[in-house]
Write a structure and sequence with these properties.
The chain is 78% helix and 0% strand. By secondary structure, it is mainly α. Helix 2 runs parallel beside helix 4, helix 3 packs antiparallel against helix 4 and helix 4 packs antiparallel against helix 5. The radius of gyration is 28 Å and the shape is elongated.
Length: 150
């Protein structure tokens, strides 16, 4: 009698595995899942933040005259290249790209005005800090939009 119970339990377990577990295993491998890689909006935010961080993190070297114009030209060239990469990545139509584009355009304007100021010996834009804050806020908004789009 004990052997019969063990055989019935064994058959029940096999039946359960065949009906419940096996279908899940076979369909799990063929399910379409959302890719876990980065999307265009995330790439835009990454490049925009990189350009802004590089600008903000290095600009302090040029806080006071006299300016090393060779160092400034090198720095500005690198900033322009980073802005260019960000503009390429922010060309999509997603909200995160639109917000990223706004930030990058504002950053390009700020860089241009600062370049003019340094080259002409005039004071920097009086609203530079507020503009940098707007840039940072736009990038943060773009990042939030990219997260929502995932």
């Amino acid at each position: 009698m004990g052997r019969i119970i063990k055989l019935v339990v064994f058959i029940a377990v096999l039946f359960f595995l065949w009906k419940e577990v096996l279908p899940r295993i076979t369909t799990h491998g063929s399910e379409t899942t959302k890719p876990t890689g980065t999307n265009a909006g995330t790439n835009c935010v990454f490049e925009a933040r990189g350009a802004s961080d590089y600008w903000g993190g290095t600009l302090a070297h040029f806080a006071n005259p006299p300016y090393d114009m060779q160092a400034w030209d090198d720095f500005k060239s690198k900033v322009d290249a980073r802005i260019g990469r960000a503009q390429e990545k922010c060309s999509c139509e997603e909200d995160s790209c639109r917000l990223g584009r706004q930030a990058v355009e504002e950053l390009r304007g700020l860089v241009t005005e600062m370049d003019s100021s340094i080259r002409n010996g005039t004071p920097p834009p009086s609203d530079a800090v507020q503009r940098q804050e707007r840039i940072d806020n736009a990038i943060n908004d773009a990042s939030a939009a990219a997260e929502r789009q995932k």
